[in-house]
Amino acid sequence: MDSKLLTIIKKLFIIILLCYSSLSFSQYDSITHNGLNRTFLLHLPSGYSAAYNYPLVVAMHGGFGSAANLQNQSGLSTKADAEDFIVVYPEGVKSPLNIRTWNAGWCCGFSSATNTDDVGFISALLDTLISLYSIDIKRIYATGMSNGGFMSYRLACELSGRFAAIAPVAASMSMPKCSPNKPMPVIHFHSYIDSSVPYLGGTGTGISDHYNPPHDSVMQVWAEANGCMVLNDTITHNQQYTHVRWNNCTCNVSINYYITRDGGHSLPGGTQTPVGDQVSSYINATDMMWEFFKQHSLDCSLSTINEIPSEKNFHLFPNPSSGIVFIDFPGGTGNFSVTVYNMTGKAIAQTDSRNTINISEFPQGIYFVSIQSRNERVVYKLIKTE
Fold first, then answer.
1. Of 142, 216, 249, 267, which one has the fewest beta carbons inside 10 Å?
2. Residue 383 main-chain phi, psi, to 5 deg
3. What range defines the domain where residue 43 resides?
4. Domain of 213: which CATH number?
5. Over the stretch 20-71, which tens digit does the pLDDT of each residue have?
6. Rounded to whole angstroms, what are the CA distances from 244 to 144, 188, 259, 376?
7. pTM
């Protein structure tokens, strides 16, 4: 067998052992940091291939939340499948009352009061994921809801060299000082009627009971750090939402602030939680943050964002499957060959220029489908069910 292909298959095998779930491509795992077992939920996009480097989005839940809660609330995993990026949902440390929070400075709760090293945990988590998966280290992004959004600001202040952009949601910044090492693109989502983290600042009605600076002052901090020349440029102001932008900044970055007139302390366009405010129907934060993220990389140039090669347009469906699997290729039948390998790397089926694979006689389990086109070869994981 081709040694390059064997290396790809071995790497995928390791990934599956760590992350495979029969129900989804999301799986809980943990690392130890500062003597604490730190948990996270990892989602690999469907069709993940170790042959490509993927963007990574670090998505942090709010106080009282969890990784699974944010995954359901945001729809980021569904977006990741559609747009080919990886999402990791790390979890804050639990308090004696079983409440998870992040140490984002003076916010919030147990993690802040005990000075939990959440910045160190996120940095260690990035190191772990980069060592195991094919991640483009120039395209790592952070987002978070509420306390998780506060945490994304802290990461931008203290780990600016690792993140290409951030997207706080229903949050503010609770750092006594912020000294990023590089300009940081920011897209922030909020609501005029958020009473937990008021956009005008002050102490909200939420249980955390802490002071929040006015959002305009937070944006001004980043405008100065980013060297923006155009300040408070109102792009949209209507009965649905306001969009304010700070631009003409160093390193081609910009700051975008969206404030909706509906919703509340919630994720715009997301799924309403049982105890949360109604979500905004005017904008979709998940869609908008990804459009923003993919414009930015650590090298500051929009033109250097790596496009996924055209062969990524191959899609296997249904997957998992118990019988016929279709190969979707925009060019139709195309000129490509398909080889199916079992977990040991043995070729068990091969076809040329066909758009279907019959796996009905295969034993239940995991297989690898190698698609060789004229220019490139890609390998996909295929799951055979009963």
1. 216
2. -110, 125
3. 3-304
4. 3.40.50.1820
5. 433 347 899 999 999 999 999 999 998 899 999 999 999 999 999 999 999 9
6. 20, 10, 9, 43
7. 0.73
